[in-house]
Design a protein that fits this description.
The protein is of the alpha+beta class. The protein is built from three helices and five strands, in the order E-H-H-E-E-H-E-E. Strand 2 and strand 3 form a beta hairpin.
Amino acid sequence: MDDEGRGSGPCPQGGAVPLGPAEPLPYEGVWRFTAPAIDASVPQARHAVRDLLLRQGVPVSDDLAQGLLLIVSELVTNAVKHAAVLSPTVAVEVAVGAEWLRVSVEDNHPYRPTALEADHGRTGGRGLLLVREITREAGGRCEVEYTASGGKVIWAALPLKPARFS
């Protein structure tokens, strides 16, 4: 990210955001790790993100943390299930700003997933729908973008402060 994980909104738009003289908060930063595209990577990614939030002292509520960890599980699961044939590894990135956090999962498969509607006669297939719903309820954004290498990155940005309702 061009803005080193800082920014006033849940998803900095259009390039770098001037940082100004303010010192970054102790929990701000960007962390990225890769994992093999195998089933065992799903809980490992979830635990790595949970441990990162705790280690950095990110001021995240329990509800938001649980939602974020479910998002990580769903996105890594989707990459393992649907992209492993063309992407032997997946990358997980966590960016934390003063007022938001963003998690993204990147793979090298060009297929762009779509959120399926609920089909009660079928198990599975609704992971992206769940990710979008958790993100929306938290007041954040979720997007799927192509990468320069021909793969994709799916990200969810969530505000650290609870969403205000009118």
